[in-house]
Amino acid sequence: MLAIDVKDLRKQFSVQKNREGLSGALKDLFKREYNEVTAVKDISFQIPQGEICGYIGENGAGKSTTIKMLTGILVPTSGELKVNGYVPFKDREKFVNGIGVVFGQRSQLWWDIGVIESFQLLRKVYRVSEADFRKRLNELVERLQLGELLNRPVRKLSLGQRMRCELVASLLHNPSILFLDEPTIGLDIVVKTEIRDFLLQMNKEQGTTILLTTHDLQDIEALCSRVIMLDDGRIIYDGGLDDLKNRWSKGREIQFQFAGHTQLAKLRELTASLDVSWTMENEVTAKMWLPHTVNVSDALASVVGGVEIRDIKIIETNTDDIVRSIYSSGSASTPKETTVS
Questions:
Q1: Strands 209-213 and 177-181
Q2: In whole angstroms, what is the distance from residue 286 CA to residue 281 CA?
Protein backbone atom coordinates (compact mmCIF):
# COMPACT_ATOMS: atom_id res chain seq x y z
CA MET A 1 0.00 0.00 0.00
CA LEU A 2 1.15 3.52 -0.75
CA ALA A 3 1.84 5.76 2.21
CA ILE A 4 0.80 8.88 0.26
CA ASP A 5 -1.20 9.01 -2.97
CA VAL A 6 -1.93 12.43 -4.53
CA LYS A 7 -3.73 13.01 -7.82
CA ASP A 8 -4.47 16.38 -9.45
CA LEU A 9 -4.41 18.18 -6.11
CA ARG A 10 -5.38 21.87 -6.21
CA LYS A 11 -5.85 24.52 -3.53
CA GLN A 12 -7.24 28.01 -4.13
CA PHE A 13 -7.69 30.84 -1.66
CA SER A 14 -9.85 33.96 -1.83
CA VAL A 15 -7.66 36.89 -0.80
CA GLN A 16 -9.20 40.28 -0.05
CA LYS A 17 -8.14 43.02 -2.43
CA ASN A 18 -7.43 46.25 -0.54
CA ARG A 19 -8.11 49.43 -2.47
CA GLU A 20 -5.84 52.46 -2.04
CA GLY A 21 -6.54 55.61 -0.07
CA LEU A 22 -9.25 56.65 2.36
CA SER A 23 -12.01 56.35 -0.22
CA GLY A 24 -10.81 52.85 -1.06
CA ALA A 25 -10.83 51.88 2.61
CA LEU A 26 -14.41 53.17 2.96
CA LYS A 27 -15.49 51.18 -0.10
CA ASP A 28 -13.88 48.05 1.40
CA LEU A 29 -16.07 48.47 4.49
CA PHE A 30 -19.23 48.07 2.45
CA LYS A 31 -18.20 46.02 -0.55
CA ARG A 32 -15.11 43.86 -0.46
CA GLU A 33 -13.36 42.59 -3.54
CA TYR A 34 -11.41 39.36 -3.67
CA ASN A 35 -8.71 37.81 -5.83
CA GLU A 36 -8.44 34.08 -6.39
CA VAL A 37 -4.94 32.79 -5.59
CA THR A 38 -3.97 29.25 -6.55
CA ALA A 39 -1.29 27.96 -4.19
CA VAL A 40 -1.14 24.35 -5.44
CA LYS A 41 -1.85 23.61 -9.10
CA ASP A 42 -3.00 20.08 -9.94
CA ILE A 43 -0.01 18.18 -8.58
CA SER A 44 0.27 14.38 -8.53
CA PHE A 45 2.78 12.12 -6.79
CA GLN A 46 2.99 8.84 -4.88
CA ILE A 47 5.22 7.94 -1.95
CA PRO A 48 5.62 4.26 -1.04
CA GLN A 49 5.85 3.09 2.55
CA GLY A 50 9.29 3.42 4.10
CA GLU A 51 10.63 6.14 1.79
CA ILE A 52 12.26 9.40 2.91
CA CYS A 53 11.27 12.06 0.38
CA GLY A 54 12.38 15.67 0.27
CA TYR A 55 9.72 18.23 -0.71
CA ILE A 56 11.46 21.46 -1.60
CA GLY A 57 10.73 24.84 -3.12
CA GLU A 58 11.17 28.56 -2.68
CA ASN A 59 9.00 30.60 -0.31
CA GLY A 60 5.45 30.69 -1.69
CA ALA A 61 5.96 27.63 -3.90
CA GLY A 62 3.15 25.72 -2.14
CA LYS A 63 5.08 23.37 0.15
CA SER A 64 3.36 24.21 3.43
CA THR A 65 -0.05 24.32 1.76
CA THR A 66 0.52 20.79 0.48
CA ILE A 67 1.59 19.55 3.91
CA LYS A 68 -1.49 21.12 5.50
CA MET A 69 -3.73 19.30 3.03
CA LEU A 70 -1.89 16.01 3.59
CA THR A 71 -2.31 16.36 7.35
CA GLY A 72 -5.99 17.34 7.18
CA ILE A 73 -5.57 20.97 8.28
CA LEU A 74 -6.77 22.30 4.90
CA VAL A 75 -9.44 20.91 2.58
CA PRO A 76 -8.38 20.72 -1.10
CA THR A 77 -10.28 22.73 -3.70
CA SER A 78 -10.17 19.74 -6.05
CA GLY A 79 -8.26 16.53 -6.67
CA GLU A 80 -7.76 13.34 -4.69
CA LEU A 81 -5.43 12.43 -1.86
CA LYS A 82 -5.04 9.50 0.47
CA VAL A 83 -2.62 9.11 3.36
CA ASN A 84 -2.35 5.61 4.84
CA GLY A 85 -5.48 4.80 2.86
CA TYR A 86 -7.53 7.60 4.48
CA VAL A 87 -8.79 10.89 3.11
CA PRO A 88 -7.29 13.26 5.74
CA PHE A 89 -10.08 15.85 6.00
CA LYS A 90 -12.84 13.19 6.01
CA ASP A 91 -11.45 10.37 8.18
CA ARG A 92 -9.81 12.70 10.67
CA GLU A 93 -10.10 10.64 13.88
CA LYS A 94 -8.79 7.40 12.36
CA PHE A 95 -6.29 9.20 10.19
CA VAL A 96 -4.39 11.16 12.87
CA ASN A 97 -3.39 8.01 14.76
CA GLY A 98 -1.10 7.02 11.88
CA ILE A 99 0.76 10.30 11.38
CA GLY A 100 3.20 12.48 13.29
CA VAL A 101 3.81 16.14 12.46
CA VAL A 102 6.62 18.53 13.38
CA PHE A 103 6.35 22.18 12.32
CA GLY A 104 9.69 23.86 13.00
CA GLN A 105 8.13 27.23 13.82
CA ARG A 106 5.10 25.96 15.79
CA SER A 107 5.08 23.94 18.98
CA GLN A 108 2.76 21.15 20.06
CA LEU A 109 4.12 21.35 23.62
CA TRP A 110 2.55 23.46 26.38
CA TRP A 111 4.80 26.43 27.14
CA ASP A 112 4.55 26.71 30.93
CA ILE A 113 4.39 23.08 32.07
CA GLY A 114 7.04 20.38 32.28
CA VAL A 115 7.93 18.42 29.14
CA ILE A 116 6.75 15.14 30.67
CA GLU A 117 3.35 16.70 31.41
CA SER A 118 2.99 17.69 27.76
CA PHE A 119 3.83 14.12 26.79
CA GLN A 120 1.19 12.80 29.21
CA LEU A 121 -1.45 15.09 27.72
CA LEU A 122 -0.54 13.91 24.21
CA ARG A 123 -0.81 10.30 25.40
CA LYS A 124 -4.43 10.96 26.30
CA VAL A 125 -5.11 12.80 23.04
CA TYR A 126 -3.86 9.82 21.03
CA ARG A 127 -5.38 7.28 23.48
CA VAL A 128 -2.11 5.41 24.00
CA SER A 129 -2.11 2.91 26.87
CA GLU A 130 0.12 3.71 29.86
CA ALA A 131 2.26 0.61 29.24
CA ASP A 132 2.83 1.40 25.54
CA PHE A 133 3.46 5.05 26.36
CA ARG A 134 6.14 4.23 28.95
CA LYS A 135 7.88 1.78 26.65
CA ARG A 136 7.88 4.17 23.70
CA LEU A 137 8.87 7.17 25.82
CA ASN A 138 11.83 5.36 27.39
CA GLU A 139 13.14 4.37 23.94
CA LEU A 140 12.84 7.90 22.53
CA VAL A 141 14.25 9.63 25.61
CA GLU A 142 17.30 7.35 25.56
CA ARG A 143 17.93 7.84 21.83
CA LEU A 144 17.58 11.61 21.94
CA GLN A 145 19.19 12.04 25.37
CA LEU A 146 16.30 13.90 26.99
CA GLY A 147 16.45 12.44 30.50
CA GLU A 148 17.48 15.70 32.18
CA LEU A 149 14.85 17.76 30.32
CA LEU A 150 11.63 15.93 31.19
CA ASN A 151 10.77 18.04 34.25
CA ARG A 152 11.73 21.42 32.80
CA PRO A 153 9.08 23.84 31.53
CA VAL A 154 9.18 24.07 27.74
CA ARG A 155 9.87 27.82 27.94
CA LYS A 156 13.23 27.08 29.64
CA LEU A 157 14.50 24.82 26.85
CA SER A 158 16.95 25.91 24.18
CA LEU A 159 15.76 25.69 20.57
CA GLY A 160 17.73 22.48 20.00
CA GLN A 161 16.34 20.89 23.16
CA ARG A 162 12.81 21.89 22.25
CA MET A 163 13.08 20.45 18.74
CA ARG A 164 14.22 17.11 20.13
CA CYS A 165 11.22 17.17 22.46
CA GLU A 166 8.95 18.06 19.53
CA LEU A 167 10.20 14.96 17.71
CA VAL A 168 9.39 12.79 20.71
CA ALA A 169 5.92 14.35 20.99
CA SER A 170 5.20 13.53 17.34
CA LEU A 171 6.33 9.91 17.74
CA LEU A 172 4.76 8.88 21.08
CA HIS A 173 1.87 7.10 19.34
CA ASN A 174 4.26 5.30 16.95
CA PRO A 175 2.99 6.73 13.64
CA SER A 176 3.87 5.11 10.33
CA ILE A 177 4.25 8.48 8.54
CA LEU A 178 6.13 11.52 9.80
CA PHE A 179 5.66 14.97 8.26
CA LEU A 180 8.54 17.35 8.96
CA ASP A 181 8.23 21.04 8.04
CA GLU A 182 11.57 22.83 8.61
CA PRO A 183 12.54 20.58 11.56
CA THR A 184 16.13 21.90 11.82
CA ILE A 185 15.49 25.61 11.27
CA GLY A 186 17.77 27.74 13.45
CA LEU A 187 19.65 24.78 14.93
CA ASP A 188 23.42 24.47 15.20
CA ILE A 189 25.26 21.81 13.22
CA VAL A 190 25.66 19.44 16.20
CA VAL A 191 21.92 19.27 16.92
CA LYS A 192 21.13 19.03 13.21
CA THR A 193 23.43 16.03 12.90
CA GLU A 194 21.86 14.35 15.95
CA ILE A 195 18.35 14.78 14.51
CA ARG A 196 19.38 13.54 11.06
CA ASP A 197 21.04 10.44 12.53
CA PHE A 198 17.96 9.73 14.64
CA LEU A 199 15.60 10.01 11.65
CA LEU A 200 17.76 7.72 9.51
CA GLN A 201 17.93 5.13 12.27
CA MET A 202 14.17 5.26 12.85
CA ASN A 203 13.47 4.86 9.13
CA LYS A 204 15.86 1.92 8.88
CA GLU A 205 14.63 0.07 11.97
CA GLN A 206 10.90 0.81 11.84
CA GLY A 207 10.26 1.64 8.19
CA THR A 208 8.76 5.03 9.05
CA THR A 209 7.82 7.03 5.95
CA ILE A 210 9.12 10.61 6.11
CA LEU A 211 8.09 13.61 4.03
CA LEU A 212 10.54 16.44 4.67
CA THR A 213 10.15 20.07 3.65
CA THR A 214 13.15 22.28 4.30
CA HIS A 215 15.27 25.13 2.97
CA ASP A 216 18.38 23.44 4.35
CA LEU A 217 19.56 21.32 1.44
CA GLN A 218 22.08 19.58 3.69
CA ASP A 219 19.06 17.94 5.35
CA ILE A 220 17.96 16.69 1.93
CA GLU A 221 21.42 15.36 1.07
CA ALA A 222 21.78 13.62 4.43
CA LEU A 223 18.33 12.00 4.49
CA CYS A 224 16.64 11.77 1.10
CA SER A 225 17.17 9.58 -1.94
CA ARG A 226 14.22 11.20 -3.73
CA VAL A 227 13.31 14.86 -4.22
CA ILE A 228 10.05 16.50 -5.30
CA MET A 229 10.68 20.09 -6.36
CA LEU A 230 7.88 22.64 -6.43
CA ASP A 231 7.80 26.00 -8.21
CA ASP A 232 4.77 28.30 -8.28
CA GLY A 233 2.47 25.49 -7.14
CA ARG A 234 3.61 22.98 -9.77
CA ILE A 235 6.00 20.03 -9.61
CA ILE A 236 9.02 20.72 -11.81
CA TYR A 237 11.08 17.70 -10.72
CA ASP A 238 10.30 14.34 -9.11
CA GLY A 239 13.14 11.86 -9.00
CA GLY A 240 16.42 10.79 -7.48
CA LEU A 241 18.78 13.31 -5.92
CA ASP A 242 21.78 11.73 -7.66
CA ASP A 243 20.05 12.01 -11.05
CA LEU A 244 19.34 15.68 -10.39
CA LYS A 245 23.00 16.28 -9.56
CA ASN A 246 24.22 14.40 -12.64
CA ARG A 247 21.85 16.31 -14.91
CA TRP A 248 22.53 19.79 -13.55
CA SER A 249 26.00 19.73 -12.09
CA LYS A 250 28.49 21.88 -13.99
CA GLY A 251 31.12 19.24 -13.44
CA ARG A 252 33.92 18.78 -10.96
CA GLU A 253 37.25 20.37 -10.29
CA ILE A 254 40.36 18.65 -9.02
CA GLN A 255 42.93 20.93 -7.43
CA PHE A 256 46.51 19.67 -7.51
CA GLN A 257 49.46 20.90 -5.49
CA PHE A 258 52.69 19.64 -7.02
CA ALA A 259 56.04 18.99 -5.38
CA GLY A 260 57.80 21.43 -7.72
CA HIS A 261 57.40 23.76 -10.69
CA THR A 262 55.07 22.19 -13.29
CA GLN A 263 54.37 23.37 -16.84
CA LEU A 264 50.77 23.70 -18.09
CA ALA A 265 51.80 22.11 -21.40
CA LYS A 266 53.01 19.02 -19.52
CA LEU A 267 49.64 18.64 -17.74
CA ARG A 268 47.72 18.99 -20.97
CA GLU A 269 49.91 16.37 -22.58
CA LEU A 270 49.24 13.89 -19.75
CA THR A 271 45.46 14.26 -20.11
CA ALA A 272 45.27 14.65 -23.88
CA SER A 273 42.97 11.62 -24.21
CA LEU A 274 40.42 13.04 -21.72
CA ASP A 275 37.82 15.78 -22.16
CA VAL A 276 39.27 18.02 -19.43
CA SER A 277 40.69 21.54 -19.18
CA TRP A 278 43.46 23.03 -17.03
CA THR A 279 44.12 26.36 -15.34
CA MET A 280 47.31 27.25 -13.44
CA GLU A 281 46.92 28.95 -10.06
CA ASN A 282 50.68 29.40 -9.59
CA GLU A 283 53.88 27.49 -10.37
CA VAL A 284 52.98 24.52 -8.15
CA THR A 285 49.16 24.61 -8.10
CA ALA A 286 46.72 23.83 -10.92
CA LYS A 287 43.03 23.01 -11.35
CA MET A 288 41.60 20.43 -13.72
CA TRP A 289 37.93 20.75 -14.72
CA LEU A 290 36.15 17.58 -15.84
CA PRO A 291 32.53 16.86 -16.83
CA HIS A 292 30.56 13.96 -15.34
CA THR A 293 31.31 11.93 -18.48
CA VAL A 294 34.94 11.66 -17.31
CA ASN A 295 35.68 9.29 -14.44
CA VAL A 296 37.58 10.91 -11.56
CA SER A 297 39.80 7.86 -11.09
CA ASP A 298 40.80 7.94 -14.78
CA ALA A 299 41.63 11.64 -14.53
CA LEU A 300 43.74 11.12 -11.42
CA ALA A 301 45.55 8.11 -12.88
CA SER A 302 46.58 10.08 -15.97
CA VAL A 303 48.29 12.73 -13.82
CA VAL A 304 49.72 10.66 -10.97
CA GLY A 305 52.12 8.75 -13.17
CA GLY A 306 53.57 11.86 -14.83
CA VAL A 307 54.27 14.37 -12.07
CA GLU A 308 54.98 14.31 -8.35
CA ILE A 309 51.91 15.38 -6.37
CA ARG A 310 51.91 16.77 -2.82
CA ASP A 311 48.14 17.24 -2.29
CA ILE A 312 44.79 16.72 -4.07
CA LYS A 313 41.37 18.30 -3.46
CA ILE A 314 38.15 17.38 -5.33
CA ILE A 315 35.51 20.13 -5.58
CA GLU A 316 31.95 19.32 -6.73
CA THR A 317 29.04 21.62 -7.54
CA ASN A 318 26.95 21.64 -4.37
CA THR A 319 23.21 21.05 -4.22
CA ASP A 320 22.48 24.68 -3.30
CA ASP A 321 24.03 25.87 -6.57
CA ILE A 322 22.11 23.26 -8.57
CA VAL A 323 18.74 24.15 -7.05
CA ARG A 324 19.41 27.86 -7.51
CA SER A 325 20.15 27.26 -11.20
CA ILE A 326 16.95 25.27 -11.65
CA TYR A 327 14.77 27.97 -10.11
CA SER A 328 16.42 30.69 -12.17
CA SER A 329 15.65 28.73 -15.35
CA GLY A 330 12.12 27.72 -14.28
CA SER A 331 12.56 24.09 -15.32
CA ALA A 332 14.43 21.01 -14.12
CA SER A 333 14.32 19.25 -17.48
CA THR A 334 16.71 21.27 -19.63
CA PRO A 335 19.98 22.36 -18.04
CA LYS A 336 21.74 25.37 -19.47
CA GLU A 337 24.78 24.66 -21.54
CA THR A 338 28.03 25.29 -19.69
CA THR A 339 31.08 26.51 -21.55
CA VAL A 340 34.58 26.19 -20.21
CA SER A 341 37.45 28.30 -21.41
A1: parallel
A2: 5
Alpha-carbon span 57 to 321, nearest angstrom: 14
pLDDT at 316 over 80: no
Instruction: Please report, as a single letter, which amino acid is at residue 65.
Output: T
Each domain of the chain, given as residue ranges in start order, spans 2-246, 251-316
* Dist. CA 246–CA 265, nearest whole Å: 30
**Confidence at residue 329, expressed as pLDDT on a 0 to 100 scale:** 65
Q: In what order do the strands lie in the sheet with 99-103?
A: 99-103, 177-181, 209-213, 52-57, 226-231, 234-240
Is residue 16's pLDDT more than 50? yes
* C-alpha of 86 from chain center: 25
Q: Rounded CA gap, 157 and 115, in Å?
A: 9
What sign has the CA pseudo-torsion 139, 142, 147, 150? negative
Q: Which 3 state secondary structure label does DSSP give 267?
A: helix
- Residue 65 — φ and ψ, nearest 5°? -60, -40
251-316 CATH: 3.30.70.260
Q: What CATH topology corresponds to 2-246? A: Rossmann fold (3.40.50)
By residue count, the chain amounts to 341
Kindly tell me if the per-residue pLDDT of 339 is higher than 60.
Answer: no
Instruction: Report the percentage of the chain scoring pLDDT > 90.
Output: 44
Spatial strand order of the sheet with 33-48 comes to: 33-48, 2-17, 78-83
Given a cut of 50, whether residue 62 has pLDDT beyond it is yes
CB-CB contact of 286 with 308 (8 Å)? no
